[in-house]
């Protein structure tokens, strides 16, 4: 999938769409210089001239090291860093880390600035926008009814996940949000006095940042991760998701010729865009997630959304001062007003206000009932709580209908209609919380339940056919395996309590609060049936008196490793043929979700093979689902890095095989990417729009049906199969077959430090080993990003291409690869992603990390192999694309990356020095210094912020 975060710049403002003229990046450079100067002023003031001078000297020397690959500069850096005091080291790390954060703010503001410039200039809709997608569909002959039908049935769902490397404190997020607002102000006409005041407040907020602890120094909890995610709802999602619905309606009206007034704009009522979350429900490898954390997650989500509803209802009460002495209202609205606890004579003629006072009272009562009581303003009097969010939405519709029927339609927009949209999209649950657990845990739980019930002595020892037979027999039984009079293991009790909590949560917050159950490491049909049995044990799967079976949770397989992806279609064919499963799928509208794991498949087989096996799995799943008459919804488990499936969502969705989207897509948003995409409301709305636009295009654009195209595609796929086989062997040979590679990895990257520090609630490894197989994919990829090798995003490609070209007619094969790059979105996107990764890869910086490997022979042997593959990959990429410079097709992103290096490189050099210190102190634990750990943690955050897609 393709470029990223600052990469989002390439999604939001394509370099090819820029109007010609003066240097359009000049305002960005000015903003960066301004923020850098203010940070320097604060550094001088807070830490003294000496520390400021050290920072500047390190920066200049690092620039010389980069530009000249100067060995003398490397020695100078080493010398400077070694003599820094511990306090100075922390100050220098903080200075460069904060610059990365400030540069991100400046870039985000510049993206907004350029987008506004396009709108003001009346430019044609940009690629990736809703307007562009609808224009393209209209030109292709897709009519308005088809487009509106798409939104009626679609589900597009970004799913926020916790991340062990990026949970910023709310204090930092708030300060940075304020800096972004002040920076945006400077584009407005300001008087000299206003400009001076603005500059003063920028300096104040940067000083506040400096005096605020950047990171937490206690172990992160799941509750911390929940609060971090909720902050993005307050900043972006609560208003921008409903606002996007307005954008869709207005763009349909604009593209299909309707006049853009409120009466004629076509309504899109179905909640096609919904938020999802894993935070509090994902317990795969995280012992800190249990029934209590799941309940806590929903309680905090409900509090967040009900706070929003209460604030908006209060504000609407002030806005809608409409009097029946001036204009009539509907009988339904009058009835709503008469039912309000507000009977003040002063408002007898103001039915909208009285109705909203009643709505506010019902919301307050609802909040208390749901355990989400956080009522800032006491209601006028008691009212019964809402039974569900649909009842709340219905009351708001009464207000809207009355306004529209009585010359007040314009008064409903934007606040009232936005609130109504929010009620339909967010309900009282805010986001659907997915449950996730590993299949081996389910097997252990059922082995104990079967044994204690006397149903089977050792379920785990059965072969697959016997397991399936036993599970299906159990699902046909009216009795339960579990008995409240038997003692079970802690694991079994915990797992059953989580299922019971899911049942309670659904009853409390609504059915959309929890509706999906994801099974990690799905390898067999029995892995899915086990979860149906566990639902039956806890009241989530039931039979009525007529024998009709219902299951509350959709059981979703997650296929992660290369072998799992290869088995995916066969497993789904077999499981969907089971009568019980067919019945349950039928009840859900003949739709079934499948999740594909990008991170683990990459760690297992490398970048090229992972992408190809994912593609092939999707093709095979389309075929199986088509024959079964079931609609496929794919859930893409994408990470932040390209090595974990990252890249622009727009390009990624369009590169999917035809037939895999069909208006149904879910995808994870993780780590620094959440902050990059959604910490600014305007950029957040555009990134959400990109998802919708891409899904529209991928779902509705008519396919190319020429026979020669199908034949060409078959040829492309045959070449990819050969390339994948070669890349797989090269990657596996290095990572899993090279003696000493694991030792090299643990020494030459900060993986050990990442595992030790309080960076997340989830352990870095699934088991207490140093095996690559047991390491989680997130810290695996993150560690390679920190040392600037980003190996999971490119290794194996060079060997694959070079070997394939050498085994045939080179000229003919080069032509075929270029043809693939020009005409196959999958291959073009793959190369685009890799191009970006290679632009961020830096062998000179990586060599500093390699020096951390004490065994010289091991260091030189493995680092040389990596360097050789890197150079071969560059050569092969240039051969295929014809571009000698990285990111030649995206100069905006290329400049962004280049501008960061002067401030990013010093952080890497400092990180190496701090790791040396920590490892030296590890031999004498009594001399361990928390300041060294703190410095490493700060450097990790700074490098991650600088790269913007490393998690």
From TrEMBL:
PROSITE patterns listed in its UniProt record: PEPCASE_1, PEPCASE_2
Composition bias, Polar residues: 1-13
Record has Lyase as a keyword: yes
InterPro entries the record matches: PEP_COase (IPR021135), PEP_COase_bac/pln-type (IPR022805), PEP_COase_Lys_AS (IPR018129), PEPCASE_His_AS (IPR033129), Pyrv/PenolPyrv_kinase-like_dom (IPR015813)
UniProt cofactor(s): Mg(2+)
Keyword Lyase annotated: yes
GO biological process, one term: oxaloacetate metabolic process
Protein EC: 4.1.1.31
GO cellular component, one term: cytosol
Location of region: Disordered: 1-26
EC class (word): lyase
This protein's UniProt keywords: Carbon dioxide fixation, Lyase, Magnesium, Pyruvate
SUPFAM superfamilies: Phosphoenolpyruvate/pyruvate domain
Enzymatic reactions: oxaloacetate + phosphate = phosphoenolpyruvate + hydrogencarbonate
Bias type Basic and acidic residues, positions: 17-26
Catalytic residue positions: 163, 603
One annotated GO molecular function: magnesium ion binding
Function field: Forms oxaloacetate, a four-carbon dicarboxylic acid source for the tricarboxylic acid cycle.
Family named by the database record: Belongs to the PEPCase type 1 family.
Subunit structure: Homotetramer.
Listed PANTHER family: PHOSPHOENOLPYRUVATE CARBOXYLASE
Name this protein carries in UniProt: Phosphoenolpyruvate carboxylase
Lineage of the organism: Bacteria, Pseudomonadati, Pseudomonadota, Betaproteobacteria, Burkholderiales
């Amino acid at each position: 999938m393709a470029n990223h975060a600052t990469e989002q710049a390439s999604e939001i403002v394509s370099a090819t769409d820029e109007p010609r003229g003066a240097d359009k990046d000049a305002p960005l450079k000015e903003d960066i210089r301004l923020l850098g100067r203010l940070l320097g002023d604060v550094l001088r003031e807070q830490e003294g001239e000496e520390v400021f001078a050290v920072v500047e000297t390190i920066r200049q020397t690092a620039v010389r090291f980069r530009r000249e690959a100067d060995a003398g500069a490397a020695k100078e850096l080493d010398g400077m860093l070694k003599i820094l005091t511990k306090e100075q080291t922390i100050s220098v790390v903080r200075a460069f880390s904060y610059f990365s954060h400030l540069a991100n703010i400046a870039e985000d503001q510049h993206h907004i600035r350029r987008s506004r410039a396009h709108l003001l200039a009346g430019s044609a809709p940009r690629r990736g926008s809703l307007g562009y997608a609808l224009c393209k569909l209209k030109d292709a002959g897709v009519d308005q009814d088809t487009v509106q039908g798409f939104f009626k049935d679609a589900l597009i769902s970004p799913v926020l996940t916790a991340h062990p490397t990026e949970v910023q404190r709310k204090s930092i997020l708030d300060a940075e949000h304020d800096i972004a607002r002040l920076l945006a102000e400077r584009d407005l006409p300001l008087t000299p006095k206003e400009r001076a005041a603005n500059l003063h407040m920028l300096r104040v907020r940067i000083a506040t940042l400096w005096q605020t602890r950047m990171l937490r120094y206690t172990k992160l909890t799941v509750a911390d991760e929940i609060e971090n995610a909720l902050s993005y709802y307050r900043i972006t999602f609560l208003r921008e998701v409903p606002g996007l619905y307005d954008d869709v309606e207005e763009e349909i009206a604009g593209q299909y010729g309707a006049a853009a007034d409120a009466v004629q704009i076509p309504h899109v009522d179905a909640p096609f865009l919904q938020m999802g979350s894993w935070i509090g429900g994902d317990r795969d490898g995280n012992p800190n997630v249990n029934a209590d954390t799941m309940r806590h997650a929903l309680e905090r989500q409900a509090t967040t959304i009900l706070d929003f509803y209460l604030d908006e209802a209060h504000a609407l009460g002030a806005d809608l001062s409409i009097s029946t002495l001036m204009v009539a209202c509907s009988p339904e609205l009058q009835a709503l007003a008469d039912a309000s606890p507000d009977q003040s004579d002063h408002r007898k003629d103001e039915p909208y206000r009285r109705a909203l006072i009643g709505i506010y009272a019902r919301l307050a009562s609802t909040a208390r009932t749901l355990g989400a009581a956080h009522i800032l303003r006491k209601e006028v009097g008691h009212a019964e709580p809402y039974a569900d969010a649909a009842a709340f939405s219905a009351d708001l519709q009464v207000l809207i209908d009355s306004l529209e029927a009585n010359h007040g339609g314009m008064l409903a927009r934007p606040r009232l209609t936005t609130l109504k949209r929010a009620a339909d999209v967010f309900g009282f649950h805010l986001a659907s919380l997915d449950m996730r657990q590993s299949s081996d845990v389910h097997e252990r739980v059922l082995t104990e339940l079967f044994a204690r019930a006397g149903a089977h002595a050792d379920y785990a020892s059965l072969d697959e056919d016997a397991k399936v037979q036993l599970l299906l027999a159990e699902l046909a039984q009216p009795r339960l395996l579990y008995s409240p009079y038997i003692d079970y293991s802690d694991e079994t009790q915990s797992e059953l309590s989580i299922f019971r909590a899911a049942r309670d949560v659904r009853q409390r917050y609504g059915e959309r609060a929890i509706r999906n159950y994801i099974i990690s490491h799905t390898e067999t049909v029995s892995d899915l049936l086990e979860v149906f049995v566990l639902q039956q044990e806890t009241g989530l799967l039931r039979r009525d008196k007529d024998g009709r079976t219902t299951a509350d949770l959709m059981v979703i397989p997650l296929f992660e490793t290369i072998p799992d992806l290869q088995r995916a279609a066969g497993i789904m064919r077999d499981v969907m043929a089971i009568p019980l499963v067919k019945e349950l799928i039928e009840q859900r509208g003949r739709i079934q979700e499948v999740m594909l794991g990008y991170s683990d498949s990459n760690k297992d087989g490398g970048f090229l093979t992972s992408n190809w096996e994912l593609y092939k799995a999707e093709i095979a799943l389309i075929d199986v689902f088509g024959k079964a008459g079931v609609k496929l919804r794919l859930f893409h488990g994408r990470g932040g890095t390209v090595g974990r499936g990252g890249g622009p969502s727009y390009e990624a969705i369009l590169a999917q095989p035809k037939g895999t989207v069909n208006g149904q897509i879910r995808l994870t948003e993780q780590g620094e990417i959440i902050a990059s995409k959604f910490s600014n409301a305007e950029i957040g709305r555009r990134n959400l729009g990109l998802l919708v636009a891409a899904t529209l295009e991928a779902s509705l654009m008519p396919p190319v049906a020429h026979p020669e195209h199908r034949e060409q595609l078959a040829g492309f796929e045959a070449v990819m199969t050969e390339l994948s086989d070669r890349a797989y062997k090269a990657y596996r040979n290095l990572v899993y077959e090279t003696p000493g590679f694991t030792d090299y990895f643990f020494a030459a990257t900060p993986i050990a430090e990442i595992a030790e520090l309080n960076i997340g609630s989830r352990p870095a490894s699934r088991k207490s080993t140093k095996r690559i197989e047991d390491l989680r994919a997130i810290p695996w990829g993150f560690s390679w990003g920190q040392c600037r090798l980003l190996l999971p995003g490119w290794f194996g490609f060079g060997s694959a291409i070079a070997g394939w070209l050498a085994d045939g007619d080179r000229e003919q094969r080069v032509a075929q690869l270029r043809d693939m790059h020009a005409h196959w979105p999958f291959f073009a996107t793959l190369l685009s992603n890799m191009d970006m990764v290679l632009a961020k890869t830096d062998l000179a910086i990586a060599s500093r990390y390699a020096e951390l490997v004490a065994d010289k022979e091991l260091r030189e042997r493995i680092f040389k192999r990596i360097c050789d593959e890197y150079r071969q990959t560059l050569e092969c990429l240039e051969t295929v694309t014809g571009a000698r410079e990285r990111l030649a097709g995206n100069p905006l992103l290329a400049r962004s990356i280049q501008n960061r290096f002067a401030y990013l490189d010093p952080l890497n050099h400092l990180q190496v020095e701090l790791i040396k210190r920590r490892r030296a102190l590890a031999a004498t634990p009594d001399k361990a210094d928390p300041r060294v750990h703190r410095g490493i943690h700060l450097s990790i955050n700074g490098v991650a912020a600088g790269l913007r897609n490393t998690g």
